[in-house]
Predict the structure of CmcJ-like methyltransferase.
Amino acid sequence: MADKVHAPLAFLRDLKIYEVEKPYHLTLTKDRECDSVITNIAHDVYGNIEVTNIRGSEDSFLLDVHGFQLAKHETSMSPRDFDSLEGRERYASEIESFLKALLGAKDVRMMHYKVRDRTSPTEQDAEKEDSIRGRPIPDASADGALRRIQLQWPLEAEELQKRRFQILNLWRPLKSPLRDWPMAFCDVRTVEAEDIVLADQISPGFQGENTLLYFNPKHRFYYVSEQKQDEVWVFKQFDSQENVAGGGCLAGFGNHNEVADHDYL
C-alpha cells in the first residue's frame, strides 16, 4: 500500500475583498440540497498536495493531539436501515454509547446526520460531487459553536457551556473497503492562526459562524487506505477546552458507496 499519495485540494482564495467584507454563505431555503445560495466565498485548487497514509500506525493519531482519530466500532446497521426513523434512532444510540466509552463522556447527543449515496451516480451527480471533492469542510468557530448549542438546546445552553463540550463529527463507509474519495485530515498542529478566516453561515432561522482555511505549505494531511466499515473517523469541529487540539481541517470526502456522517455534542 502506498505510503503517500498526491491529490488536488481546494482552499479559500486569498481575495482583497475579505479585508473589508467577511466571507459568507447564505442559504435561502431550509432544504439542505437546494442550490439557492448566495456567497462571496471562492476557492483555489492546489494540485499535488502530499497526503500520508496512516495505515499501520493508526493508533499514533489522537483526537486531542491531531484533531482526528480512527477508532474501531462494530455496527449492527445495514445501509438500508438508515431509510427508517427507527433505524436512525438505533444507530444514534449505538454511536452515543460508543462515544461515551471512547471519550469518557457522560452526555452525548446527536445534532445532525447525513447519508451520502453514490451507488448509481448520474453524470449530473458526478459533476456536483466533483465540484466539492477536495474542498475543506469548515469547522465551527468558538462563537459559532455556542450558537449551535443555543439553537438546539436553548433551555440548557447556559448550563452546557459551564463544562467542557465538544462538537464532533463521525464518518464511516457503510460499504467497504473504501478505495475512492477517502477523507483527508489536516494535523491541526500545522495550522497557523493567520491561516484561519471566520465566515458567516446563514440559513433560515439561524446565523452560524465557521472557520475557513488559507493554503499554507506547512500543512500536513493524512488519510487511511481501504477504510473498513468498522473503522470510524472521529474528528473535532470544536472543543471548548484549551491546550488540546481544536477543530481539525479536513478535505476530500465521498465515495461511490454509501457513507454516513454525523455531528455530535
Summary: The mean pLDDT is 83.
